[in-house]
Amino acid sequence: MALKLFNTLTRSVQEFTPLDPAGKKAGMYCCGPTVYDFAHIGNWRTFVFADLVRRTLEFSGYEVRHVMNITDVEDKIIRRVRENKSTLREFTGKYEAAFLDDLKTLGCREPHQKPRATEYIAEIIALIEKLVARGIAYQANDGSVYFSITKYQGCGCHYGQLLKLNLDEMRTGERVASDEYEKESVADFALWKARVPDDGDVFWPSPFGDGRPGWHIECSAMSIKALGESFDLHLGGEDLKFPHHEDEIAQSEGATGKPFVKFWLHGAHLLVEGKKMSKSLGNFFTLRDLLAKGFTGREVRYLLLTAHYRETFNFTLDGLSGAKSALARIDECLGKLREIAGENSTPNNESLPLNDNSHLKLFAYALHDDLNISAAWGVVFDWVRETNKRLAENSLSVGEAVSALAAWEKMNSVLGLGNANIIIFASANFVGGSNLTANPTVVSVPEEIRLLADERAAVKKAKDFQRADAIREELKAKGWVIEDTPKGVKLKKI
Ligand SMILES: [Zn+2]
Fold first, then answer.
1. Which pTM does this prediction carry?
2. Cα–ligand 1 centroid distance for 29 (angstroms)
């Protein structure tokens, strides 16, 4: 079954075909973070969604070029730089580094290119000059350059491709200088903002005078430079449909005269504990807040991936605890399979007793149906159940375990859950992979021990080695030896 995705441009689920005549390469641009603060969990939903799209494309055999910009100059950033009496680079650099760290913690594949807006000023100016030359942009009395919606439409172009807009209500000559505005205020928007005292040191020279780019033109310039004037996929949160994405289409198509993007994909909003996230309600979480509560990036990722990307999702702390147990079920099953497989790694293709192939097919089928993630999880947990049944019967051969692990690796290439930090070798006689018998005695690891091992991994990451050593001793007192191996942590019952 071919991959189908909901395209906001056509408001329908369509079969994905890339522009590449060979049907192999796919260019994907995702609007990246505005680096003025730590990204919150609502932002992360969008980036995990983008990662799912990329991984699904790669799972389906496409060679993806994933570009995510870093917005390091816009209205909010300049305000914060002023308030913090900082320099632009110093201020944005801190949040950019934090963002990329968090992206890793959530198991997202790193984009192939991460252009910073401030490094594309020449491309931005060139794009604005093109629009001015085509009569679609003009310099107003305030010195700023604006995009003229009327002139754009006069060229036979359509403004309002992603969202129905009531353009009749638009008052001629009205302009909007700020980057963010509501659809009720549709108006000519700023491409280049003339320097004002509040901008401080943040300005660049240009043929239109000193100033700085508007937010929307930044993404047009960076995406065109990275992926070409027309490319396959553009992603973002649904709040970006208007004005950001609509303006991106207008600027790009206005300048090049070519269709900008084939597929527009938008992720839905996130509620936290049933309400819109807000600091005053106490339901505003950055990823770091959740890690401080003892949850892991893997658990947050799992929970974010349980809902379909076009549905509003209610993120709760209870849900995160549920994620912990769901992952523990998967990890336990994998731990037992690894114990049987030992050091063997060549899948036994002749015997696939767990119907791994059909599970994989169903898994792919679910994802290809506009990323039907609930159905995909359904397949994963069916697979876990069936595997556990065979494990309980003690009837899995080494080859079968290896095949099952290979099937999991394929599914996990999309889910991106990585591997648990803990490899559980619970067999009392365990001394090394080669000494394992095909059916070792499987001893389950008590929850208390597992949690201590988890905590040790977390404190080690935070470089609290004293606490890590204390946990090792505590485990020993409870009858378990913990060791670090190149594959992860090994637990052994004394
Ligand atoms: Zn953007």
1. 0.86
2. 9
